[in-house]
């Protein structure tokens, strides 16, 4: 590929092998038209979308057996699309989203590698409301609380895109922003449960790999207003 190199990985999930085209390593950067720069993606972060991270594997494993029947599902920050492909393999109704300029093409290529139909993709910058996206029964993401501001942005997205009885599932490697996010979700009436020790920490993150499940209890009208 011009500007970067790729490799094909075989990722076992739920008893099935998924073939995934990924970047060869983290020392990659290609932005000939300036799309990444316009999207606010720094060159040092450009290649992060193109790897399968432990948090992403844990989310995909969860999606391989989670109850998804009849649910409309939204994946935030899909990257290479592994979790969305697992859901598509199960016949689920999933919309994959990201804001990296190459995420859509990698997702489409990986769907083809696995003989799956095209997965619906939407470019979704988290800070920009998208009134056409609609609401979902299940919203998922892996390591999406990467920066401090993401807690506020994703909590605001839940207001816009979560159905009243929706569930949010996040795999988090311990970035340190979970507390602020959970407080914001509590204002919307969401309670959180944690399952710890699902995967090893990524980089220098101090916490333990965990699955966070947010479900709404008593909605507080003032917060929703």
UniProtKB/TrEMBL annotation:
InterPro entries: Methyltransf_16, SAM-dependent_MTases_sf. It comes from Stenotrophomonas bentonitica. PANTHER family: HEPATOCELLULAR CARCINOMA-ASSOCIATED ANTIGEN. Pfam families: Methyltransf_16 (PF10294). CDD domains: AdoMet_MTases (cd02440). One of its GO terms (biological process) is methylation. The keyword NAD does not apply. Keywords: Methyltransferase, Transferase. GO terms for molecular function: methyltransferase activity. This is Methyltransferase domain-containing protein. Gene3D superfamilies: Vaccinia Virus protein VP39 (3.40.50.150).
């Amino acid at each position: 590929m011009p500007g970067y190199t790729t490799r094909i990985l075989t990722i076992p999930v739920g008893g099935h092998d998924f073939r995934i085209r990924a970047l060869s390593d983290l020392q990659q950067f290609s932005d000939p038209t300036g799309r990444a720069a316009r999207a606010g993606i720094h060159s040092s972060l450009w290649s992060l979308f193109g790897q399968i991270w432990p948090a992403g594997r844990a989310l995909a494993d969860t999606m391989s057996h989670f109850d998804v029947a009849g649910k409309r599902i939204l994946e935030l920050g899909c990257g290479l699309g592994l979790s969305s492909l697992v859901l598509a393999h199960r016949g689920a109704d999933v919309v994959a989203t990201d804001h990296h300029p190459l995420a859509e093409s990698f997702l489409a290529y990986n769907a083809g590698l696995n003989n799956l139909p095209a997965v619906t993709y939407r470019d979704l910058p988290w800070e920009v409301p998208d009134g056409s996206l609609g609401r979902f029964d299940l919203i998922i993401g892996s390591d999406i609380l990467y920066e401090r501001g993401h807690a506020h942005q994703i909590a605001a997205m839940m207001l816009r895109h979560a159905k009243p009885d929706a569930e949010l599932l996040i795999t988090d490697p311990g970035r340190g922003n979970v507390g602020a996010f959970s407080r914001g979700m509590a204002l919307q009436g969401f309670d959180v449960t944690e399952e710890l020790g699902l995967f090893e920490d990524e980089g220098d993150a101090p916490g333990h790999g965990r699955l966070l499940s947010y479900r709404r209890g008593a909605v507080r009208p003032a917060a929703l207003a």
